[in-house]
From TrEMBL:
InterPro entries: Beta-prop_RSE1/DDB1/CPSF1_2nd, RSE1/DDB1/CFT1, WD40/YVTN_repeat-like_dom_sf, WD40_repeat_dom_sf. It comes from the Eukaryota. SUPFAM superfamilies: WD40 repeat-like (SSF50978). This is Splicing factor 3B subunit 3-like. Residues 1-141 form the RSE1/DDB1/CPSF1 second beta-propeller domain. Coiled coil: none annotated.
Length: 143
């Protein structure tokens, strides 16, 4: 359910008898994982409407997920992290040119149960006097 600033409510219903298992979001993007491993990706458009963008089928149920924060000056984050019970984390693209394509896979010693992207802000004029860009880190909690 998306409740807009003006009070209007847009409701999205899951297909068939599927249920929502996990959700990740930032200020402009939402990813829903349904039971069975289907991912559904939404973006908030310029009018504030939540629009379904893409669907992607994972190989099994999703254990956890997170969307990176939207970088300053950008319309969307490029990265989605999806943790699976097969002891892997996949980084998927949210870029329109290769949306929901796997960019990276990391094998783990146990299944992930939580994921968090963390952006560490740039330092301006640090000890070396140089400006440094922000860095993006993915933190994973394991079972």
């Amino acid at each position: 359910r998306h409740i807009r600033e003006d009070g209007r409510i847009n409701e999205w219903r899951t297909p068939g008898k599927r249920t929502i298992a996990k959700v990740g979001s930032n200020r402009l993007q939402v990813v829903i994982a349904l039971n069975g491993g289907e991912l559904i990706y939404f973006e908030v458009d310029v009018t504030g409407q939540l629009m379904e963008v893409e669907k992607h089928e994972m190989s099994g149920d999703v254990a956890c997920l997170d969307i990176a924060p939207v970088p300053e000056g950008r319309q969307r984050s490029r990265f989605l992290a999806v943790g699976s019970y097969d002891k892997t984390i996949r980084i998927l693209s949210l870029d329109p040119d290769d949306c929901m394509q796997t960019l990276s896979i990391q094998s783990l010693s146990s299944a992930p149960e939580s994921l968090l992207f963390l952006e560490v802000q740039a330092s301006v004029g640090g000890e070396d006097g140089a400006d440094h860009p922000a860095s993006l880190f993915l933190n994973a909690g394991l079972q």
